[in-house]
């Protein structure tokens, strides 16, 4: 018995359990070992590994079947990440989209350490379970990966101009309090970065169960000259829509609780649309009434690492 276990036994506590999935190839990790507090502060200085520019990044560690030589990036192999799931959480969307677009590279971006570790192990296990499948075959899971990063700071470090064809913002942290709205993942400033990495006609998906956040995202996207909303009737044949609505862990939770889901999907325009008179960034609707933001049920945030 280790010293730590002996102390634990003396204290009458259950010994700390650890995920052992990596000892058995193909064994899926268990979420219970990868739980972390709900929010990571996007303004903290997390210890993150990011490239100075997209061409410096080594994609072979993410997609070894597509970039067999270590140190290869998109320009060398002709393959590039095309879909990015921002705040991918436990990875449900990537796993649902992977077989639908088996030769498209997709990256989940997640700020929480443990959650990113879980997704990485989940993808490794799925790849091992399906190692007889060809690289571009559905369910080989060779086209999905995850990176621990802060999407509010480093998007242009990972993706060059116009690289992405789809960007997903599914059930983003709502940051209810007014003084925390600046931490929301969709803001006017950040939309300029998302427009930069999305190619013309690329698509940006947002889904949330929080009505105020939905209105916030729609308002900022409507105000942005490079985004135009796609009417819901034009989304009927989009195979991504059922996935964004129902395949993420958060989406499933909302469904279990019989909550609402609000979808808004935008096309990245080639040329900026004509806007009316500039009204500034001040919200045109009231999000919550209390001045100090008390009583909205959100925890205080702190850096988590
Ligand atoms: C409410 S969860 C939703 C997760 C997933 N999209 C889903 O629908 O199940 C929001 C996720 O975004 C992550 N996140 C928040 N801010 C982020 C940031 N700046 N960069 C990357 N991930 C972030 C959080 O850690 C969390 O896992």
Automatic annotation (TrEMBL):
It is found in: Nucleus. S-adenosyl-L-methionine binds at residues 87, 110-111, 150-151, 170, 248-250. It is an enzyme of class 2 (transferase). Its main location: nucleus. Signal peptide: none annotated. The keyword GTP-binding does not apply. Residues 295-305 have a biased composition (Acidic residues). It catalyses: guanosine(46) in tRNA + S-adenosyl-L-methionine = N(7)-methylguanosine(46) in tRNA + S-adenosyl-L-homocysteine. One of its GO terms (cellular component) is tRNA (m7G46) methyltransferase complex. The active site is at residue 173. Keywords: Methyltransferase, Nucleus, RNA-binding, S-adenosyl-L-methionine, Transferase, tRNA processing, tRNA-binding. Residues 1-30, 286-305 are annotated as: Disordered. Pathway: tRNA modification; N(7)-methylguanine-tRNA biosynthesis. NCBIfam families: tRNA (guanosine(46)-N7)-methyltransferase TrmB. Belongs to the class I-like SAM-binding methyltransferase superfamily. TrmB family. Catalyzes the formation of N(7)-methylguanine at position 46 (m7G46) in tRNA. Forms a complex with TRM82. This is tRNA (guanine-N(7)-)-methyltransferase. It comes from Rhizophlyctis rosea. The gene is TRM8.
